[in-house]
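Page 37, continued from 36.
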């Protein structure tokens, strides 16, 4: 019985090894908190935090009202526009999803 012998190319072996290493390394996840030099743990700030001024401008432009008509209610954490109540979180989500608005009027 003859055994079939196949030669492997060293370049193929190295390529497969590098591919497996890259797959393994890309699957690793960063921790949610970073350790500062002083040893304190600091949570990262929310990257998508939007100021109230930007949201007021967004609402005034998209709803076609003046900025004076958009009132932020601290008690309810939302906006009042001509008697209509809008939650801040929903307004912020809409703002972050409004790519055309942000491209036109800036971030």
């Amino acid at each position: 019985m003859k055994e079939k012998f196949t030669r492997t190319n060293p370049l193929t072996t190295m390529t497969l090894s590098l591919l497996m290493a890259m797959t393994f390394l890309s699957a690793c996840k960063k921790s949610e908190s970073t350790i500062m030099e002083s040893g304190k743990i600091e949570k990262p700030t929310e990257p998508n935090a939007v100021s109230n001024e930007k949201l007021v401008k967004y609402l005034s432009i998209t709803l076609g009202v003046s900025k004076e008509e958009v009132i932020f209610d601290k008690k309810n954490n939302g906006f009042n526009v001509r008697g209509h109540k809008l939650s801040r979180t929903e307004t912020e989500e809409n703002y972050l999803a409004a790519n055309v608005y942000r491209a036109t009027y800036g971030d």
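The beta strands are 34-35, 41-42, 70-73, 78-81, 84-87. Flag for discussion at group meeting. The CA atoms of residues 3 and 74 lie 80 Å apart.
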